[in-house]
Amino acid sequence: MPDPRIQQAARLLIHYSTSIRPRDHVAIFASPEAEPLVAEVFREVLRAGGYPYVLMGLDTRPELGGFDDIFYAEANADQLQHVSRINRIVRSEFEAMVFVRSQRNTRSLTAVDPKRMATFAHAQREVFKVFLERSARGEFNWVSTLYPTQAHAQDAAMSVGEFEDYVFGSMYLDDPDPVA
User: Fold this and answer.
1) What is the SS3 assignment for 113?
2) pLDDT for the residue numbered 110
3) pLDDT tens digits, residue range 60-110?
4) Could you tell me what percentage of the chain is helix, strand and coil, using 3-state DSSP and rounding each to the nearest 5?
5) What is the distance between the alpha carbons of residues 147 and 6, in angstroms, rounded to a whole number?
6) Nearest one of 101, 140, 129 to 19, comparing CA atoms
């Protein structure tokens, strides 16, 4: 049985934070670490009548060396400046996005050359501009949240259980009406 706080978080993200309506296309970005929350968000999007699109794997996996690490280490100049079609479509055509920060390793990019990261970020500016404009016009609802992982707990100098209580408590997920 899922943690009721996770179910409550999904309801809060979908019905309050992004106000999903029938036929809304909703991108859900997360790493596999957040699978319990992603499953509940997926369920709530369906219950709201929307179309959920789960895009897993944005964060690193140590056993693979981390996709971000690989990208910044291996990408040539053209690849660093490439804009993902998926990101372009999500930010220009979808009605909503849920981004779940759920890293397994919060320090995976410490050895990356900041110039390479800046090159990539600069190439993304047009998509980011569209995202901001659509958000300002109310055409694109989005929310970013944190799913407690071992890495985040370590950064906070807490056990995973303590960090879960902290994160879920900060969202008032033990209350019957966290919006109130």
Assistant:
1) coil
2) 87
3) 433 333 578 788 889 999 999 998 898 899 999 999 999 998 888 888 888
4) 50, 15, 35
5) 9
6) 140
